[in-house]
């Protein structure tokens, strides 16, 4: 076992976050090494201590789909490579039904309403209002939309949005036709409008270096985000990408992210996507159920393909040893087999 890694982990267990250089050093080890294994173990223990062994359930509803002119190379909706033709738009009844399915048990921390880079504001506000009416008050609503100005964010907040998922993605401006500056402006607009910010290191591919990933992690710390996730790139058929990192490597990255976040108070929530038992025992603590369209899927309704439902997410958190799930209002619900069975029965 490398002595320097031993020292970094020992300090982290005493609540001292690793430096940028130390995070790069930790990510320099391959995923199947003792150094990576110990890093994941330390991150797991630290995250559980910080959260009282609590995980989060997220849900995402993809509202609309059409070939997208922003044409991100990793997204199944990019107009030059998408297999989807025409436009799919969820109607009011379908939105209502999907929100009810995801939130009926009251333990969903937050619900994201996702649409494309360009979206119809009236349609989106209507969807937000439906979600606010159907979801219990303790479930937070987050937007997942294209670049947006301050005035529009004010309107979205009035319609019920609590926060925003908006990210400067790895390869922004290179794999996408957007600029990091424009993405940052949107984040600034959301903050100014009083919305919370969820961030994520994504989409991680095999070419991304420890330095590039650590740069993003430390920018998240500067932004004082409330959620700092990690997500790997899915090699969606039809896109130029055919490679992917292993789930074990993603778990190692999640672990380094969890250690670095010791610099933030309060300690943020740490999603991992797509979650699995390795990631949820390596520092990740939040898992997302998905329905509707999904940029990592070639099915129009991801619930029939890649997307997990909320029951499957609850079970995975329990299997990973989490004792509680936290609602959007901070109340913790005990996660037991009986509780999970009770939720399943009322489906
Ligand atoms: S990731 Fe978003 S902006 Fe990029 S192509 Fe897909 S829908 Fe469009």
Please give a structural write-up.
This protein is α/β, with parallel strands linked by helices. The chain contains 11 helices and 12 strands. The strands form 2 sheets. Strands 1, 4, 5, 6, 7, 8, 9, 10, 11 and 12 form a 10-stranded mixed beta sheet that branches. The chain has a two-stranded antiparallel ribbon with strand order 2-3. β8 (227-232), α9 (247-260) and β9 (272-273) form a beta-alpha-beta unit. The termini are far apart. The mean pLDDT is 94. It binds iron/sulfur cluster (SF4). The site of iron/sulfur cluster has 11 residues, from loops.
List keywords for this structure.
347 residues, alpha/beta, two-stranded antiparallel sheet, 16% strand, binds iron/sulfur cluster
Question: How would you briefly describe this protein structure?
Answer:
With 347 residues, this protein is an alpha/beta fold. The protein has helices at 3-13, 20-27, 34-51, 92-103, 121-134, 150-158, 180-192, 210-223, 247-260, 310-319, 337-345; strands at residues 54-62, 64-65, 88-89, 110-114, 140-144, 163-165, 196-204, 227-232, 272-273, 286-292, 324-326, 332-334. The N and C termini lie far apart (49 Å).
Number of strands: 12
What coarse outline follows from CA principal-axis ratios? globular
Helix content: 25-40%
**Biggest sheet record:** 10 strands, mixed
Secondary-structure element order, N to C:
HHHEEEHEHEHEHEHEHEEHEEH
Distance between the termini: 49 Å
Instruction: Name the average pLDDT.
Output: 94
Oligomeric description of these chains:
single chain
Number of helices: 11
Ligands in the structure?
iron/sulfur cluster
Unreliable stretches covering 5 or more consecutive residues: none
Beta-strand residue fraction = 15-25%
The helix-and-strand class reads alpha/beta
Radius of gyration: 19 Å
